[in-house]
Design brief:
With about 200 residues, the protein is mainly alpha-helical. The chain is about 70% helix and about 0% strand. It has eight helices and no strands. Helix 5 packs across helix 6. The termini are far apart.
Length: about 200
């Protein structure tokens, strides 16, 4: 990969490194990813990488924030002009499309939960918890739906994450009961029709 242009602004350089870090951490997790691999992907030296992000933890946090930002922005854009069940259904549909199109976002989410539990760094765990809870609160506020709907939306989303991460085909028995169109390659939830059905 070509070296990062020296004419790029510091902000652009940080963004480029953060994108590369998210891709590498998504594949290898916090423990299995080296800063050397990240530097190589973006085309900079390790000393330069550490000028932008002093520690590997700082780099992981930046990648974590990017992942949450992408997911939350997807929800907000999908629900624009909608409310209630319509907003929730649109969020679920957009989320399904996002993780199908960008596997890094899906895998980074899974790595975040592992890192929060096993990194031994309280700041990492606190960041992941704080951003996840903020995402929950945003969906709740945006849709105006109750705790039962929130539980179904997020628990179903986690199951979808697991099945897609494992590569379970969309016609497998594990997908039975999900509100999604069978014509899609991966799960793309449709609008639920009854409060007792799982939200996407």
């Amino acid at each position: 990969m070509a070296k990062t242009s020296m004419r790029m602004s510091a902000e652009d350089r940080r963004e480029s490194v953060t994108r590369a870090a998210m891709t590498e951490f998504a594949k290898g997790g916090y423990f299995g990813t080296s800063t050397e691999a990240i530097a190589r992907r973006v085309g900079v030296s390790q000393p330069y990488l550490f000028r932008l992000f002093p520690t590997k933890v700082d780099l992981f946090k930046a990648a974590a924030n990017r992942c949450f930002d992408r997911t939350i922005a997807t929800f907000e854009q999908a629900a624009e002009g909608l409310e209630g069940e319509d907003a929730l259904a649109a969020m679920g549909q957009a989320y399904g499309e996002m993780i199908e199109e960008d596997r890094d976002v899906l895998l980074m989410q899974m790595q975040l939960y592992v890192a929060a539990a096993a990194s031994g760094d309280g700041d990492v765990a606190e960041l992941v918890r704080r951003r996840w809870l903020a995402m929950w609160d945003m969906v709740r506020a945006r849709t105006g739906l109750d705790d039962e709907w929130m539980n179904k939306f997020f628990s179903t989303g986690m199951l979808i994450n697991t099945l897609v991460s494992l590569g379970i085909p969309s016609d497998d028995r594990c997908w039975l009961g999900f509100p999604f169109e069978e014509s899609t390659e991966q799960a793309e939830p449709n609008k639920p029709t009854e409060p007792t059905e799982p939200a996407p």
